[in-house]
Design goal:
Helix 3 (40-59) packs across helix 5 (74-92), helix 3 packs antiparallel against helix 7 (116-131) and helix 5 runs antiparallel to helix 6. A four-stranded mixed β-sheet has the order 2-1-3-4, with helices on both faces. By secondary structure, the chain is of the alpha+beta class. Helices cover 62% and strands 13% of the residues. The chain contains ten helices and four strands. It has helices spanning 2-9, 22-38, 40-59, 61-67, 74-92, 98-109, 116-131, 146-157, 160-163, 195-209, and strands at 133-140, 167-174, 181-186, 189-194.
């Protein structure tokens, strides 16, 4: 049932587009253009740095709080970014590039550090498109059994979007809040086949009926 629903949904992938921050997209595009203008190697290096930084932010509560606090002074923002760079450099064993530092400097100066996650996500999507990669994130309440994952991969490969890509990468993320079913995200598209989505729709219908 689940796979058949996904099969019918992939026939109309223009539906269910995920909302994205226009502001974050502008920074993503500018960073992508600046990195690629230098060289494809620089593009790859910047992507690696950003993924290390976003992992660091998510793993360290103080850094996550720093990124999400728009009220900090310029001095505090500068100190916080220095801590982010130091943590990233200790992980990668090499200095953070000027392009990456310039991105965060501009985000900081414009009071947009809170857009960091969206900027990095948008940048990764641009790089994936450049490399002909398609990353599909399948979110489920529990890890998907191997046979289900295989069937999903087979169905997804038949979609027009996947056929245009050179490589297809499927990642299964676990989120108990979906209750059951799956949510499939790739690029700026989303297919919501989760139980939680159906429950929400039912609740909306019931509320409108009262």
């Amino acid at each position: 049932m689940l796979c058949s629903s996904l099969r019918s949904s992939t026939a109309s992938l223009g539906l269910g587009r995920r909302a994205a921050s226009t502001i974050a997209q502008k920074y993503s595009n500018a960073l992508y253009s600046a990195a690629l203008a230098k060289s494809p190697q620089t593009l790859t290096k910047v992507q690696s740095e950003l993924n290390t930084i976003v992992s660091t932010i998510n793993e360290v509560p103080d850094l996550k709080a720093f990124i999400g606090n728009p009220t900090l002074s310029a001095k505090d923002r500068s100190s916080g970014l220095a801590a982010v760079y130091a943590r990233a450099e200790s992980t990668k064993k090499e200095p953070v590039s000027d392009i990456t530092k310039n991105l965060f400097a501009v985000l900081s100066d414009n009071g947009r550090l809170g857009e960091t996650q969206g900027v990095i996500q948008g940048f990764n999507e641009l790089v994936a498109k450049y490399k002909g990669e398609l990353e599909v994130v399948v979110t489920s309440a529990a890890p998907l059994p191997r046979d289900v994952s295989s069937r999903l991969e087979s169905i997804l490969k038949q979609s027009q979007t996947a056929q245009q890509a050179k490589t297809l990468k499927i990642t299964n993320k676990v989120n108990p809040s979906v209750l059951g079913g799956i949510v499939v995200d790739f690029g700026d598209k989303s297919i919501d086949l989760s139980v939680s989505s159906r429950v929400n729709k039912l609740n909306n219908v019931l509320q409108q009926s009262v």
